[in-house]
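Box 3.1 — From sequence to structure: beta-lactamase
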Amino acid sequence: MAAHRNFRAIWGKFCALIMLGSMMTACVSADGPRIVPRPPADRPVSSPPPSQTTMPAPPPRTSTPPRSAGSIDPALQQFIFEEWRKFPGKTGVAVLRIDGTGLVGQRLTDLFPQQSVSKTWVALTVLDQVDQGKLSLNQNVRITPDDVAVFYQPLGDRVTREGVVNESIARLLELAITSSDNTANDNLLRVAGGPDAVRAFIGKHGLGQIRFGPGERLLQSGIAGMEWRQEYSVGRRFYAARDAVPYDRRKAALDAYLANPVDGASPEAIANALARLARGELLSASSTRLMLSLMEQVKSGPNRLKAGVPAGWRFGHKTGTGQILPPVSTGYNDIGIMTAPDGTRYAVVVMMADTTASVPERMQFMQSISRATANLHQP
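Predicted structure (token representation):
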């Protein structure tokens, strides 16, 4: 009997050891979560190593913090990160819920070249002066060949043909915002008091990390490693002069601009400024309506953010496009305000400082951000 009791005791200890081993094995199951290292913040990963070419699926909704009413769905941040990390070059994204809470994105506080996005601040400065009675929308502006700018400028071509053109401030605002006409913008800048007036408007309203450059002519010639001459405003003379600049000099000038853009702005600051515009905090009610209406009439960039906005939503925006020094494109931007059918508004900002992606790839990236914003919207 004693031998039998000893056998039962030994057998019980053996079974307990087997059960403990099984429990330990379950704790390190191969089905447990894998930790995938986040890429460095200073450069998105464009070609992940073969072992990580397939990213793990986003965590299930039950693992994310509960979403409060009137906020941004946490899944939008995850989506933006997944798209951003695959896109080549330095890119910034911001999505801010204007009517509610929440700001998501990547490289939110870095400075990106604005290019024609900066026309937004010129228009706001002019409308602020209209609100103060310093300017009038009906006021005519005399434009001569000495006032013609560079690059896209149908108004400048008309001045070159006719010699002198008179246009109202209202018409110049329309041309500068809806068509991104550089001559219209530079002449609005002139009547408003120049770059210092725009900087004063930005400072007065505390818009944060938004710089304003010297105007189109000086900005674009400086980026190309040139000094501006008014003769460059005619035809394709600017392009011919730029082609004559040695490649090394052009690259050095472009690299310096990208490293510290004189017209730089952060995605977060732009998103906040758009939100304040939408809420009527920057201009009078009538000037706010006019500016938002002009942004909804923009003709440039129909295949950027706008192409991802679904039917039933409203969208107003302003694009910007910089110079190209193959294989790099610079300052490819779009900023806007999306309005859902229920009236909820989002400020959406996508800025590309430099990229080797093709134009269709850039457009698709922008569309993915606006489309995801709409798809993940909840009242």
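Summary of the box: Confidence is low (pLDDT under 50) at residues 1-64.
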